Amino acid sequence: MASTGLSEMRTRRIICFVLPLSMILLLLYLSTNKLHVQVSECLENGRPCVEAQIDIIIHPKKNVNTDRPSDAKEDENILENALRNCQRDGFQIGKMLMSFRSCVTETGEILVGEYLNAWRELIKFMDSMGTVFIFISSETRTKINILQDYLRGKNGKSYRTISSMVQYELENEVVNFKELPPNRVPSGCRTLLRMHRALKWLEDFLYKVGTSPKEQKTSELCAESYHKTLAHHHSWFIRQVAEIAFLALPSLEEMYEVVCVKDHKEAEVVLLTTVEAIAKVYNITQEIYTNHNMLDLP
Ligand SMILES: *[C@@H]1O[C@H](CO)[C@@H](O)[C@H](O)[C@H]1NC(C)=O
User: Fold this and answer.
1) CA distance 209 to 221
2) CA dist list (Å): 148 to 2, 137, 138
3) Nearest CA to ligand 1 atom 3
4) What's the pLDDT score for residue 12?
5) Which numbered atom of ligand 1 lies nearest the CA of 283?
6) What SUPFAM superfamilies does the database record attribute to this sequence (predicted)?
7) What pLDDT is stored for residue 38 in this prediction?
């Protein structure tokens, strides 16, 4: 009895060790294919290219900004230059900034369709850092598809904004507060909550990328953000894989290339502007979920 128990334990310990290790080696292998740049294109999904919309980002209300403090003007110039000179394809920070801004309506509602678009840009961001985030980005793709199906479905109108979705799903008892039913498509509320949690992590990480000195290790920044936000929602196994996957992150200087900036100063302006747009979307969503006691949906 005792020796079977012992060898069982030994086997289990080996599995615990070998499985994460082999996943990590796979991730490291895959991440050598990172940072590949493709040819530029000007229309994506029928939307105009970044170049044409930069004006809208920099000067949202053209006639208002006559008397600006000079450092605000300087920041504007930095933002404008960084976005205009961003020739890389795949992920473009300007597109992501725009997509987060267009999530919020004038009355402060979040449009679900635009939210999904913004997430598609975030996935491009994660993918452009190699395969480090593959465990998050593939899960997020599934979640985008679930919500997109609700949006295209026969009750699609009720899914136009986050608050209309919450109202519709609560009234129709789609949301399950006790458990996740195994054989049903998860509710929109539950699905979006997962993305919402991951958004906080990326918001925090982007903030750190924008404000940390360039000697700082990205793996440490990312792990810090992860511990602060997403880690307590993950299982032990995923946490181990995440920890080690972060070690394969590109350096801060390589990240600057991904977000189309040359130096720390530019990084700060571009990333803090982006983080603010993300935080706005995050805060509104957080308020809706708090008001309906839905922050812990299973
Ligand atoms: C979001 O909420 C946090 C915490 O309440 C606050 O510090 C921050 O200024 C808010 N950001 C935006 C853009 O609303």
Assistant:
1) 8
2) 54, 16, 15
3) 283
4) 59
5) 1
6) Glycolipid transfer protein, GLTP
7) 33
> What is the distance between the alpha carbons of residues 99 and 123, in angstroms, rounded to a whole number?
13
Q: Enumerate domains of the chain plus CATH numbers.
A: 2-291 (1.10.3520.10)
CA-to-CA dists, residue 288 to 101, 102, 106, 165, 183, angstroms: 18, 18, 17, 11, 27
Do 116 and 147 contact (CB within 8 A), yes or no? yes
Distance CA 91, CA 89 (A): 6
Scanning the structure block, which residue is given the tokens 């998860």? 186
Residues of the chain falling short of pLDDT 50: 1-2, 30-44, 61-65
The protein residue with its alpha carbon nearest to ligand 1, atom 14, reads 280
CB 220 within 8 A of CB 94: no
Given CA atoms 230, 234, 236, 241 in this order, what sign does their dihedral have? Answer: negative
Which residue type, as a one-letter code, is found at position 288? Answer: I
Residue type, 68: R
134-188: per-residue pLDDT in tens? 878 888 999 999 999 999 999 999 999 999 999 999 999 888 888 877 778 899 9
